[in-house]
Write a structure and sequence with these properties.
The protein has about 300 residues and is mainly beta. Helices cover about 5% and strands about 40% of the residues. The chain has a five-stranded mixed sheet with strand order 13-1-16-17-18, with no helix packed on it. The protein has a five-stranded antiparallel sheet with strand order 12-2-14-15-19.
Length: about 300
């Protein structure tokens, strides 16, 4: 006979004990299977009061020759510069779980204007200028209203790109040596959040937000022109941002203050009010309002 110790294990002798790592893996799989999925909500927003947006008159340089749509020529009717929601307004959403845009942030230059007209970045972010115009632009940057250049003038030929940075917080203007009326704005400061361009119907969509509290701010010509707080709570939400006319502002974000101008945890500084509601989640608190960009007659 073969001793019992030399015989292989059989079912009659009982099951083979499970190993510790097998028990741990099984338990982990069960926990993952039971964990609820994190809901992602799409927020639909609307800008109200877009008619209040009006391009700021830019002083013409001496001996500047206007474009054909700006001076009487007996053939083409004069057009009045006006704001374009799609091209000039940027909506910035901030809140828990919202990550800032990855570097570099790209701005398109086409039709003699930036798209969008106002950029919101964190200090030190690489700004990539993508010239899609048929002509070159010799762009430089100064603090809003003028002053020493913080970005030197350099030719960006048609179809090429250029990278620049704004190392300190503030509001800056991008200008063009070759086109004196060219303007677009860069807001450098904390709280960049996610930048969204609205559609021609004044609507915008923020996709994939987790439950929590958020704020939507609208910028035009380097100034916050409207904001509204809203709450996401397990279902699709809506938010309305009411825009107001521009008011004089220093416009320089500081530490602890989002680029929109509202101190963290403080009281909104913008004028006007915005309303926001999430079905089944209650209404969001209204805050100040903003917008940005330079319209061109079309």
């Amino acid at each position: 006979m073969v001793p019992a110790a030399a015989r292989g294990s059989t079912a009659a002798e009982g099951p083979v004990p499970s190993r510790p790592h097998q028990r741990t893996l099984t338990a982990a799989v069960c926990v993952l299977a039971m964990a609820p999925a994190v809901a992602a909500t799409d927020v639909r927003g609307t800008l109200q009061g877009v008619e209040s947006l009006s391009p700021t008159a830019i002083p013409e340089a001496p001996r500047y020759r206007g474009s054909y749509w700006e001076v009487p020529n007996g053939t083409v009717a004069l057009t009045t510069p006006r704001a374009s929601v799609e091209a000039d307004v940027a909506v910035v959403v901030t809140g828990q779980g919202v990550t800032e845009a990855s570097q570099p942030v790209t701005v398109r230059v086409e039709g003699g204007r930036c798209r969008p007209g106002t950029l919101v970045v964190t200090p030190g972010t690489v700004l990539q200028i993508d010239n899609r115009d048929v002509l070159g632009h010799e762009l430089y940057a100064v603090p809003r209203g003028g002053g020493d250049r913080v970005v030197a003038a350099e030719l960006t030929s048609a179809g090429t790109r250029r990278q620049v940075t704004f190392p300190s917080a503030g509001v800056f203007e991008l200008r063009d040596v070759r086109q004196p009326t060219f303007r677009c704005w860069v807001i450098a400061g904390p709280g960049q959040g996610r930048v969204i361009s609205p559609a021609a119907d004044n609507g915008f969509t923020v996709a994939g937000l987790a439950d929590g509290e958020y704020t939507a701010r609208a910028y035009y010509e380097g100034t916050e022109r409207g904001s509204a707080a809203f709450r996401v709570a397990g279902r699709d939400a809506t938010v309305t941002v009411a825009l107001t006319a521009a008011t004089p502002t220093a416009g320089t974000p500081t530490a602890g203050t989002p680029a929109g101008g509202t101190p963290t945890g403080g009281t909104p500084t913008g004028a006007g009010a915005g309303a926001a509601t999430a079905p089944g989640a209650g209404a969001g608190a209204g805050e100040g309002v903003a917008a940005h960009g330079h319209g061109q007659g079309r």
